[in-house]
Amino acid sequence: MKKSFLIGFGVGLSAIAAGYVYWQRLSASQQDQLAVKLDDTLASGRDKATMLESKAALNAQNALASLKDSTSKLKGHLDSARESIEDDADVMDGDIVIDHRSAFSKAKQTAEQEDVRPTEKFYPHNN
User: Fold this and answer.
1) pLDDT band for position 98 (50/70/90)?
2) Distance in angstroms (rounded) separating the CA atoms of residues 48 and 29
3) Are 21 and 15 in contact (CB under 8 A)?
4) Cα 23–chain centre separation
5) CA distances from 3 to 7, 13, 17, 36 (A)
6) Which of 96, 120, 117 is CA-nearest to residue 108?
């Protein structure tokens, strides 16, 4: 980390020094032309940044509106599903009916009829 920082710092410092030396070698008219060109480039960059910022803000507003719309649709769907469940609950009886011949009793009956042991021990016995 320290080496990469020092290398980057050295490269940046070298670039600044090279720019300063180049600037000093230019004539006054060339310096003025370069300054005007740099100002134009910076103004163009600011315009592009402003345009991108407005597009990003518009996209964020559209996404938020879409999210709100989707949320309201989902809420309406859930409300209608809740009402449907409540309507079905009114129709259903409160009694719970359990068949006395559940799966376990059927398995037990089958095992008794076929003389099959439903549970066997498969570990070594002490003899």
Assistant:
1) low
2) 29
3) no
4) 49
5) 6, 15, 21, 38
6) 117
Tokens encoding 108: 């037990």
Determine the Cα angle at 113 with ends 110 and 115, to 5°: 100
Q: pTM, whole model, 2 decimals? A: 0.44
- Please spell the DSSP secondary structure of 20-76, one letter per residue: HHHHHHS-HHHHHHHHHHHHHHHHHHHHHHHHHHHHHHHHHHHHHHHHHHHHHHHHH
DSSP state of 118: S
Cβ contacts of 117 within 8 Å, gap of 6 or more = 111
Place of tokens 């089958």: 110
Q: For residue 35, give both structure tokens.
A: 């300054």
Please give the DSSP secondary-structure letter assigned to residue 124: P
Q: How far is CA 126 from CA 52, 121, 123, in A?
A: 83, 12, 10
